Input
Amino acid sequence: MSRRRRVYEGKAKVLYEGPEPGTLIQHFKDDTTDSDSQKHATIEGKGVLNNRISEFIFSKLNDIGVPTHFIRAINMREQLIREVEIIPCEVVVRNVAAGSLSKRLGIEEGTQLPRSIIEFYYKNDELYDPMVSEEHITAFGWATPQEIDDMMALALRVNDFLAGLFLGIGIRLVDFKVEFGRLYEGDMVRVVLADEISPDNCRLWDIRTNDKLDKDRFRNDMGGLIEAYQEVARRLGILFENEPKRRGPTLVK
Ligand code: UDP
Output
């Protein structure tokens, strides 16, 4: 096998040059870190689960007309994506108070928010991804006002889709983080969803028990991370072990 050129290595993923110009291979590692990158661990099987979950969600988003970087699955850990220029803003959508929102504003975890709230964070590890406003984003040229509008509109569509998808399988979508990129097509450029959507960047609580089925299990040293990610994949109908293949999510009554 020829050696592939590594284009970028992040905390949980590696990007390799793709088979055609304008494409990349996104490889999911087993590594995990907490928000401040203070804590690090390798959790066997996490990359495979996140690749599977993210590929399922991104292909469904493509199907409903949300533009994404995702092209197709390659193998257990890898997917083919379009090369985009990542916009250096993390976009968080919240439906229920948790994490930093609860801490900052003193709102009890689990409180339903009056409406979905969008926040922006500047992607910069050295500064621990500080929260920023649209004013900062436009003043410093990280994105244009039009790109901010596009990111917000797409983030809300992703939220509606994901909240419904997870509700149908007995999971409450508390919040999640997404990233966007600029896709250059000839002399056109448009904003598309990039990165990944998995329990690493969503808060997912079981509707009945409030059990955490996401990365908070690692952040809070709760253990059982792989089992929780497997449970999400199983409910989505995409974890094939010894069970017969299913075509889609299983309704939890
Ligand atoms: N999040 C993420 N990457 C980050 C920070 C947050 O994926 O670097 C996700 C996190 O999993 C949660 C949402 O964004 O679903 C909101 O996180 P929050 O601001 O509450 O931060 P945290 O409590 O993780 O510090």
Remarks:
- The chain has a mean pLDDT of 95.
- Residues 35, 92, 98-101, 129, 175-177, 201-203, 215 surround uridine-5'-diphosphate (CB under 6 Å).
